[in-house]
Amino acid sequence: MLSSSDLSATDGGPLLLAPEWLMRPEGAQRGWAAAVHGGRFTHVGPREAVQAAHPGRAFVELPQQLLMPGLIDTHTHLTQAFGKSLAFGEPSEIFKRIWVPMEGVLDTHAAYLSARLAAWESLRGGFTTVVDAGTRSEEGLAGVAQAARDTGIRCVLGLICNDAGNTDGEAGARRILDRAAGFLAAFEHDPLVHPSLAISIPEAASDRMLHDVAALTREASRRFQTHVNEHLAAVERSLVARGLRPIELLHAVGALNESALLAHATLLTHREFGLLRDSGAAVAYNPVASAWKGNAVLDAGMLQLLGVPFGLGTDGTRADGLRLLDAAETAQRLTHGLANGDSSCGGGWTWLDHGTHRGAEAAGLGRLTGRIEPGFAADFLLLDLDGPEFLPSWDLSWELVRFGNRDQIQAVFVNGALRLWQGWPVDWDARALMREVAEVARRDVARAPLQRVHATADAHRAMST
Question: Signal peptide: which range, if any (predicted)?
Answer without folding.
Answer: none
